[in-house]
Specification:
3-stranded antiparallel beta sheet, 5-stranded antiparallel beta sheet, alpha+beta, 238 residues, PH-domain like
């Protein structure tokens, strides 16, 4: 251990050097023999500046079972299947909702004429749920990185979120944790986002159920693009 450096004490009033007999460590004070001034002395020296803390390096994520990785003609292709066993519950719920709504509209129309029209919004909701369930069973998300752009496509059933980002505009990729409060508690999903060279953030893929899915996609893209993993404000905790 390095010994602390000795500090030469001088009078704060006249600047004269102080002798040991003029200093009282117990009182943390000193009296100048020249001008008779009494003043406090520092009890310790300031600690040397500490180097900035280095960001934690994330461990390499395992490849999830629902994500396939391949290369075609020099392009990186990540394909994530949407299906999960939880979709089967929503399938039965959507079938029950839609079937009940249709029978209610038919019965109400036969009895009250225009009264059955009030049930049409519920039928529309049911059809929307059935479409979402069908997409959850059939669809997958394909992320492709080529020489000029990174593209995201959902299919085969049409779904919002298709996009293409010029490769030279991608500065960083990171994962974000999204927690929403519901009646039954909280629901946490994960999003993979891109930071552009002009500091604009844009989501690549949302609503991932597992943390490893988001991290694996991020790490595969960063490795292929040659991007060094750096901390981003608001990212998932390291």
């Amino acid at each position: 251990m390095t010994a602390p450096a000795l500090v030469e004490l001088k009078c704060t009033n006249c600047g004269s050097q102080l002798d040991p007999q003029n200093i009282s460590p117990q009182l943390a004070a000193a009296r100048c023999p020249h001008c008779n001034s009494l003043f406090a002395i520092p009890t310790h020296t300031s600690a040397p500046p500490q180097p900035p803390e280095q960001p934690k390096i994330r461990p390499k994520a395992r490849q999830p079972k629902n994500i396939n990785v391949s290369t075609q003609r020099g392009d990186l292709i990540l394909e994530r299947r949407w299906f999960s066993p939880a979709i089967l519950f929503f399938l039965f719920f959507a079938l029950f909702w839609t079937g009940f709504s249709v029978f209610w509209v038919i019965g109400a129309s036969a009895v009250g004429g225009f009264f059955g029209l009030f049930g049409l919004p519920f039928v529309a909701i049911g059809i929307g749920m059935l479409y979402a369930v069908a997409a959850g069973i059939m669809n997958s998300t394909t992320i492709q990185v080529g020489a000029s752009a990174l593209s995201v496509k959902h299919g085969p059933l049409p779904w919002a979120g298709n996009k293409s980002i010029p490769r030279h505009q991608i500065a960083q990729i990171f994962c974000r944790e999204v927690t929403r409060q519901t009646k039954n508690g909280s629901n946490t999903t994960y999003t993979v986002e891109v930071v552009s060279t002009d500091n604009h953030r844009e989501p690549l893929i949302k609503s991932l159920n597992q943390e490893d899915e988001a991290l694996y996609i991020e790490q595969q893209l960063e490795t292929f693009l040659g991007i060094k993993d750096s901390p981003v404000r608001g990212e998932m905790e390291r």
